[in-house]
Please model this.
Amino acid sequence: MNETLTDPQPLSFEEALKKYEPVLGFEVHVELNTVSKMFSSAPNAFGDEPNSNVNEVDLGLPGTLPVVNGRAVESAIKLGLALNCSIAESCRFARKQYFYPDTPKNWQTSQYDEPIAYDGWLDVELDDGEIFRVEIERAHMEEDAGKLTHAGTSGRIQGADYSLVDYNRAGVPLIEIVTKPITGAGERAPEVARAYVSAIRDIVKALKISDARMERGNVRCDANVSLMPKGASRFGTRSETKNVNSLRAVEHAVTYEIRRHAGVLAAGGSIVQETRHWQETSRTTSPGRIKSDADDYRYFPEPDLVPIVTTEEWIETLRAELPEPPAERRRRLREAWGYSDAEFRDVVAAGLLDEIEQTVEQGASPAVARKWWMGELSRLANARETAPAELGVEPATIVELNQLIEDGKINDKIARQVLEYHLDGEGSPGQIVAQRGLEVVSDDGALTAAVEKAMAENPDVVEKVKGGKLKAIGALIGPVMKETKGQADAGKVRQIVLEKLGIEG
Ligand code: ADP
Ligand code: MG
Model:
């Protein structure tokens, strides 16, 4: 296990790519958000009391029989279709024999030679907009394992030398998507890796078949990397970095493995086919276990489950339910909204496409919708330690708020206050403005009085304005706002000042 110690120094990424061509392969596991588990009626829920969502099927008790979750099968078919795969007319489950301390049955029910979906592809968009096609080998259904907590090292129980097992996750439906070997990515290999996993995450989210939260392990990636000398066509030996669960980590793990392989190969060594673990703190990988060949698992068809037969009609019904592909939707919205690349990227990163789309649908301009969601709502969300989309502010509220500004009833500053009152549960923007009497003071009497007071108290400013420095009027707006509790119309203030001094505006 001290192989890392004896590994030669990794080459720099640039050096590595001068000598070698990377080949990649990804196995992405997607946890489905079905109500119950893959083969039992136990709840599929995250974060519950350990071992509370477990029944006799999950525990593999003698005499129990699994039943396939129909919703999970539909999710798999939809995902297969979204990945441009062929859907099997008939497919079976298989037992993958293995000693899993976190899986009481001691085999994983998976699919082997008969996956439900196969031979697809996915076009992923790289940072510069270029499209890279990734070929999909297969997408198959299986079940998740339970979760081990090593009591001592996890810090749960000081000095403990045992592990705790939580079977809540045992039997949670998974779809594993396996790519064909990816060649031709060259120096963009890490970028392709991130773009691919990100595209899968977007698709399962759009399909609503998974919560798609990588930090919870809903989407996790095993990244296979090998190198071959430039110009060669025979693939090198791969390493498989397991369960990488953030986009950044996927990118870094691929980068590191390319550098590590190159270091080993350039020093005349050979790569061991093994699994590896990603180490976030050092941004390196460490050796796991020597990789079994499929033979070792003694796969055989699951005798307790009947084959799944798909009909043309069923598949077409599901196909008709597919959402617009996320990448196409982004292209469409980017064009329609006319944002700059940077603006659009920020909106996507903030997860606000839906909110802005709905705000625009309900009548706001794309610029106004972006201003509120990326500006004030993001700020408020930040202060409340949540995401803007989670604040519970309806797009219609933003449209209403903006209308109040456009009608001259409130100014921007008051509007921001109204939003806070709204978040505190005071009702719609219109109601808040009426109840709190926030309408802009534009009736000339009150405003003129406030302006006169400000001018009297700031003779130096008045002198400047008289001398032609119209910009100095800004210094009077503050005091007027104070006097009117922020409800003055700044344009009007300026107009009154100019009138008083007999200056042409
Ligand atoms: P396993 O479960 O044993 O890891 P899979 O076939 O499920 O095997 O997944 C292996 C992944 O690695 C696939 O994405 C495959 O395309 C990819 N792959 C296979 N050979 C290589 C190689 N030499 N270099 C990089 N990736 C590879
Ligand atoms: Mg694998």
Remarks:
- The longest strand covers residues 131-143.
- The longest helix spans residues 247-266.
- The chain has a mean pLDDT of 92.
- The chain has three domains: 4-313, 326-436, 444-501.
